[in-house]
Amino acid sequence: MDKLSQFAPIILMFAVVYFFMIRPQMKKAKQEKNFAAELKKGDRVVTKSGMHGKIIDFSEKNNAVIIETGAGKITFDRSSISMEMTQKLNEPAKAKK
Fold this sequence. Notes:
single chain, alpha+beta, SH3 type barrels, 2 domains, four-stranded antiparallel β-sheet, 4 strands, 24% strand
């Protein structure tokens, strides 16, 4: 029993690290993957670099998105679309409807 009490702090530390660091990170990665898979034509998006535009087409071959901006059409990887900024951009549009 004495040996178990010696390992209790280490076990507790691993549990804290899992529930406060690893699990939320895995949950966020899953949400971003679902977000990228659910993109559709006409969605207004913001890239992680700050480029605003509207999705006009997809390139399944390259796993990319073609975005129309004020400067023209640009191709981005699906992973470069910012989930947080895009959701903030589209919230007021949904609230008006």
